[in-house]
Amino acid sequence: MHVHTIYSGHGSLRVKNIFKIYRAKGIVPAITEHNTAEPWKEAEHYSKKYDLPFIKGEEIKVYHNGKLAGELLGFFMNEEVKPANVFEVIDKLREQQALISVAHPFDILRKPLFKGFLMLDEIKNKVDAIEIFNSRCWLSSANEKAKRYIEKNKLAFTAGTDAHFPSELGKAFLIVDANTPEEARKKILAKKCSYWGRRNGLEVHLYTQLAKLGFFK
């Protein structure tokens, strides 16, 4: 429920390899590139080739009063949504009946640094879910806080690897008893799912910095 590709510019995950690896693992990927739907067309091709459905998604930067508030994950989308004011992005995702989750809400080592997702209390009833586990969170406390927040507020949840490299695939996923993506969407919203996950080592963050410098082109 949170996978990136080479389209991000700071990873080495080719769309073809996502389907090849996840077909072998028996996992349906949600491809959620940063601020773009560009991988979807290629994903549709490999979805047919490998006979594996996928979820059209996006990880979108959102702002409030001109400042970065954090990132939202859109799932089961139909069209791209550009970064914008947090309420505007939520409205655009709602228009296409997407499932909306808050990405890594308590990870203080991502922008906005040392703060986590701003305005979480203000939008918790406007989104569908919170990301309960993210394999790329440096600190285990980030995932633990997300779990406590979800339990306290009785929210639905998503979980994902936030993968940018092949070695990260399969490190976290939702477990949903469903036969179709639409059935899975309904069960996630109804909180009829569970999750499994483990965190990555710090090396994946080093790989990301090297990728930004062009080492994995």
Structure description:
With 217 residues, this protein is of the alpha/beta class. The chain has one domain (6-212): Alpha-Beta Barrel (TIM Barrel), CATH 3.20.20.140. Helices cover 31% and strands 23% of the residues. Strands 1, 2, 3, 4, 5, 6 and 7 form a seven-stranded mixed β-sheet that branches. A two-stranded antiparallel sheet has the order 8-9. It starts with 14 loop residues before the first helix and ends in a 5-residue tail after the last helix.
List strands and helices in order, with pairings.
Layout: H1 15-25, E1 30-34, H2 40-49, E2 55-64, E3 67-75, E4 84-85, H3 86-95, E5 99-102, H4 120-123, E6 129-134, H5 140-153, E7 156-160, E8 172-175, H6 181-189, E9 194-197, H7 203-212
Parallel strand pairs: 1-2, 2-4, 5-6, 6-7
Antiparallel strand pairs: 2-3, 3-5, 8-9
Structural class: alpha/beta
Strand content: 15-25%
**SSE arrangement, N to C:** HEHEEEHEHEHEEHEH
Any idea how many domains? 1
Query: Uncertain regions: pLDDT < 50 for 5+ in a row?
Result: none
Main sheet, how many strands, which sense, barrel?
7 strands, mixed
First-to-last CA distance: 25 Å
CATH class descriptor: Alpha Beta
- CATH level-3 fold name: TIM Barrel
Entry summary:
The chain is built from seven helices and nine strands. It is an alpha/beta fold and 217 residues long.
